[in-house]
Amino acid sequence: MMTLASGNKVTSNESHYLRLVNGPGQCAGRVEIYHSGKWGMICDDSWDKADADVVCRQLDCGSAINATIGAYYGRGTGDIWLDDVECVGNETHILNCPSKQFDHNCGHKEDAGVICSGKRIAHFANHLLCHLDTFCV
Ligand SMILES: [Ca+2]
Ligand SMILES: [Ca+2]
Predict the structure, then answer these.
(1) Tens digit of each residue's pLDDT (9 = 90 or more) over 69-128
(2) Ligand nearest to the CA of 45
(3) Are 14 and 7 contacting, i.e. CB atoms less than 8 angstroms apart?
(4) Ligand 2 mean position to 89 CA, how many Å?
(5) Which ligand gives the minimal distance to the CA of 42?
(6) CA 129 to ligand 1 centroid distance, Å
(7) What's the CA-to-centroid distance between 121 and ligand 2, angstroms?
(8) Residue 21 Cα, ligand 1 centroid: separation in angstroms?
(9) Are residues 26 and 14 in contact, defined by beta-carbon separation less than 8 angstroms?
(10) CA-CA-CA-CA dihedral for 24, 58, 18, 4, to nearest 10
């Protein structure tokens, strides 16, 4: 079940000026970065699991299950802050990855997103208790 393009439902977990918007839980959604007083998006050119891993880790959401492309979680509005992101996967911040920062050749139909695993924090009997989210695996 997906709610596309409603635009501003924010189920976010904000950390280090990074948030996930419009997803079904706190650890999935369109990636937005705060810069220069505004939230902006990431273009999906070169967007892949290594890049998504960095975002997931940064938000304490475990590792990436998927890197979503093509505005899977709806089109954002405003600026596109990053394009051609080329993380190795072990960077501590998405801005530490090589990319075209604050410059791009994209439109919002290319807004990037992530689906993260969530973070498993404890086992109780047969139950898995997950930190932050529903995507615990
Ligand atoms: Ca990449
Ligand atoms: Ca590009």
Answers:
(1) 999 999 999 999 999 999 999 998 999 999 998 888 999 999 999 999 886 555 444 444
(2) 2
(3) no
(4) 19
(5) 2
(6) 31
(7) 37
(8) 20
(9) no
(10) -20
Listed as own residue / partner, the contacts of 16-22 with beta carbons closer than 8 Å and 24 or more positions apart are 16/58, 16/93, 18/55, 18/58, 18/59, 18/94, 19/59, 20/55, 20/59, 20/61, 20/113, 20/114, 21/73, 21/74, 21/76, 22/73, 22/74
Q: Is 63 exposed, middle or buried (0-12, 13-18, 19+ CB in 10 A)?
A: middle
Q: Among 77, 86, 94, 82, which Cα is nearest to 21's?
A: 77
Does the pTM exceed 0.70?
yes
